[in-house]
Structure formats: C-alpha cells, structure tokens
Amino acid sequence: MEKGDARRLVAGNGTITYVDLEGGFYGIVADDGEQYLPLDLGETWLVDGMDVTFVAGVREDVAAIGQWGAPVDVIAIDKAGSATFVAENGTVTYIDLEGGFYGIIADGGRHYLPLGLEERYRVDGMRIAFAGKIARDIVTIQQWGTPVKILAVPWACSSCGGSAGIANPAAAWCLAQGHAYEIRKNPDGSEYGVCIFANGTVIDEWDYYRQSH
Q: What count of other Cβ atoms lies within 10 Å of the Cβ of residue 112?
C-alpha cells in the first residue's frame, strides 16, 4: 500500500466569507451550503464575497475555530469560472488503445485521462484517491476520458484490486468516507480488509460498515 495522509478530498464552487468569530477569519461557504475553514489561504483570496472554485483535503485532526466549518488544506483555488477541479476515488485501468495508456475510472463511472500521473501509480487495478484540474482545450490522441492534470494523490492502494474495491460494499463505504483501505493477511493465509482513519485507528471493514452505514 502506498499511502499519503488518507484525507477526504472535496472540490466545488463557493464564496470566500469573512466570519466575525474568535477575532475574525476567512472561510469558504460552498454552493451546497457546506462550510470549510482553509488553514493556508493566501492573501490574494482574503476577499469577502469573492466567488471561487477549489479543491482541498479535509483535516479531521484539526479543531475548527468556534466550531465553524471543516478545517481543510487548500490544494488549488481559482476564481469561479476560471478552472474546474475534481476530487474522486477510482481505479487506475490500463486501456489497450493507441499503443496502450493508463486511465482512471471513478467510482461514479466517469472516465479520466490523467496527465502527469506518476509512474508508481501506473498500476492496473490500483485504487486511488486524487485531486485534479480539468485540462481544457486539450486534444489527446487517445480520445478516451476527460483529460485531467493530477494535483495530488493522498491515497493509493495497489493490493485492494479495482473490481474488488468497487464490488465490496464495505471497502467502497470506507473509501467514500475518506479513509484508507487495506487488505491484510491472517497467519493461515486468508485475507481481510481494514479501514484506516487519519489518526491511525484501524478497524475491520465490515465492523465499520455495520457501525456507520
């Protein structure tokens, strides 16, 4: 397993908002109403009312200021309409077309053609969580999927298996909640899956599924 910090990723549009609590700070109110507390927002973006598009990693290990919003590390941000960011879980898939290449099939069925995917992630069947920026006005010879520039890969698992990762509801639920998933072996050689939280807590996949689903 190759693992970063296993944080949940979020992407979307929102508005920079000045919050008059605890001395005052700037947050992002997403179009769906969710509130995010950026921990590393540059001065350029400290403008109340500015509409932005962003992708970020949720920090479950950091307490919110005044219980306002979910703390996040901003991976990329731009003015609304200037870019399109995505945050997805999916499976790296080898596509035997045009000489062969690697694509990512997201859990929701979308096809992405990753630009700048590191060699270590070019493994057929690898489960992956990634943040990306849609590459506009780019024509590729592959003519497969939506071209996307990979910005961050906080989690990847080469032993989880593409189809198994999607078909197993406990594994899919673990990943959907933003946790890491790993297959381990018992002394007798049998395998079992575990869900790994950002704080290092490890729980059996099915125990977590039954407790939280």
A: 22
Strands 70-79 and 35-38 come out as parallel
Cα-based torsion angle of the residue sequence 20, 23, 24, 27 in order, rounded to the nearest 10 degrees: -110
What three-state secondary structure class fits 104?
Answer: strand
Q: How far is CA 133 from CA 63, 112, 146, 184, in A?
A: 28, 11, 10, 33
Determine the Cα–Cα distance for residues 197 and 190; give it in Å rounded to an integer. 23
Give yes or no for a contact between 39 and 73, defined as CB atoms under 8 angstroms apart: yes
User: Counting beta carbons within 10 angstroms of the beta carbon of residue 213, is it exposed (0 to 12), middle (13 to 18) or buried (19 or more)?
Assistant: exposed
CB 68 within 8 A of CB 27: yes
User: What is the Cα–Cα distance from 83 to 69, expressed in whole angstroms?
Assistant: 24
Cα dihedral across residues 91, 210, 64, 50: positive or negative: positive
d(CA 25, CA 186): 49
pLDDT for 177-190, tens place per residue? 888 877 777 787 77
Write down all domains in the chain, each with its CATH number in brackets: 9-79 (2.40.50), 85-157 (2.40.50.500), 169-212 (no CATH)
Residues 13-37: tens digit of each pLDDT: 999 999 998 889 999 999 999 999 9
DSSP string, 2-15: EES--PPEEEEEEE
